[in-house]
DNA sequence: AAACATTAAATGTAAGACATATGAAAATCG
DNA sequence: CGATTTTCATATGTCTTACATTTAATGTTT
């Protein structure tokens, strides 16, 4: 871990990489305290600011946490799914917005992934998940709802579906795909009739999940994907024509 | 974006968050140059090292890149799928190793996600993808192969399958799930008979993809999942008994 | 013995300096 | 005049030193 070529560029990046590798390879255990900044500076033969820049890089990835005071220092973080999700969502969102990913492509990916959760969710969903889904459906049918709030509720509904699979790995991976769609969905204006159709499809999904019918859940999701795609298509076509 | 409460703690984190929000909200465009470190220090009323720590945090997330020299500075990065994948893989790997995720759970998630790609891959796969899959199968059947190389080839095979779906969003999301399994797979020793069974299943998958048969692809994947799970189960049971 | 003050160790921040890379302008030469 | 070289300004990369702040352990006093 003390490797550091005499290439005098990107020292902080090199140090960050060295520490990161040590964490990944198991050389540093969870909750283990790193040497103090001064000690690290001496070990790597650099100044303290350089060490600090390296540590901040690791902190940005939630690989370490720092604590001030007498017994303080930098500690290896237990990377939790909860902590990793916001970052995953941020990255996914930026990937979509910066790479001109079409609504169609993102939507296709999202529903393909959700269908992967369907059989598991149908088997394992708890009453809690069902209650969340029903509550979100109820919220979506309220009249005064803004388009943004409607989309947010849509996301919550789908996350409950995904969480119903009872697999944290799936929930983590899907969080990015589901949440990153929200900005794209927010570009759509939903008429009352649109909302009614979507809510009906949501009810179909909830019913299928409740009945623990995997096949019905999958086909209901496909129907919702179809509806979303055609809706988006018409909205974007109208917007393009208006120009 | 110049908001900064007089809370005198985590200044660099606050500054990083402010710039990050500006990027996400579109206040800073791709390839746009940020103010110089000295200017930022003045704007936020902090010292240059503090600004630098903030910038390093953003660089760790590939949100910005820096360039030295006269026309240098920090530029907003176009976050590409290629750049985001390694980070996604690192995070996924650490999540599995640090949270005592069972082989069963990770394997279930991986194959559920891969089955999501199956219909699309069966439809859209190019000869290139097929060739890669066949080549990896061939490699796996070579005699002198180490277990690690066998697992690496397995990952390459599955990534070709995922990429065959022709959806960059899917490829990105799946990369984490597929690659993160490798350390877990490396804990298994594959006998010659194990390998033969896996290779046969791989051939079944490749055949189904070549025939553009979505249903056959999905069921072949399910068979492979079964095989992997029972294999892992017996290996771990034997290891537990030996103690 | 309990409450309080002191101290030490660590991170957080600041300020100034120098090194280095790099593009552009200026000077020089053919 | 044009091409090449030199110079220079600007920005990041790094080092040094210093001080502020937080926090727990230690010591002291009542």
TrEMBL record, chains A, B:
Name of the protein described by the UniProt record: HTH gntR-type domain-containing protein
GO terms, molecular function: DNA binding; DNA-binding transcription factor activity
Organism annotation: Roseobacter cerasinus
PROSITE patterns for the chain: HTH_GNTR (PS50949)
HTH gntR-type domain mapped to chain residues: 9-79
SUPFAM superfamilies assigned: GntR ligand-binding domain-like, Winged helix' DNA-binding domain
Keywords annotated in UniProt: DNA-binding, Transcription, Transcription regulation
Pfam families per record: FCD, GntR
InterPro entries for the chain: GntR_C, TF_FadR/GntR_C, Tscrpt_reg_HTH_GntR, WH-like_DNA-bd_sf, WH_DNA-bd_sf
């Amino acid at each position: 871990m003390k490797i550091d070529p005499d290439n005098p560029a990107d020292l902080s990046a090199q140090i960050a990489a060295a520490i990161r590798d040590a964490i990944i390879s198991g050389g540093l255990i969870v909750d283990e305290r790193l040497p103090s900044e001064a000690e690290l500076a001496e070990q790597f033969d650099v100044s303290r600011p350089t060490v600090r820049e390296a540590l901040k890089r690791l902190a940005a990835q939630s690989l370490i946490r720092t604590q001030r005071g007498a017994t303080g220092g930098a500690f290896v973080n237990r990377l939790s799914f909860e902590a990793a999700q916001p970052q995953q969502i941020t990255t996914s969102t930026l990937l979509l917005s910066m790479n001109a990913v079409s609504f169609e492509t993102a939507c296709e990916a999202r529903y393909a992934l959700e269908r992967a959760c369907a059989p598991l969710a149908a088997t394992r969903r708890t009453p809690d998940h069902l209650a969340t889904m029903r509550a979100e459906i109820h919220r979506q049918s309220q009249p005064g709802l803004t388009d943004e709030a409607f989309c947010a509720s849509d996301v919550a509904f789908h996350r409950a579906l995904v969480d119903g699979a009872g697999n944290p790995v799936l929930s983590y991976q899907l969080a990015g795909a589901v949440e990153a769609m929200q900005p794209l969905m927010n570009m759509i204006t939903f008429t009352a009739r649109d909302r009614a159709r979507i809510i009906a499809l949501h009810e179909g999904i909830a019913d299928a999940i409740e009945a623990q019918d995997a096949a019905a859940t999958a086909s209901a999701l496909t129907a919702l994907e179809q509806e979303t795609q055609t809706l988006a298509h018409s909205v974007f076509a109208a917007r393009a024509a208006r120009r």
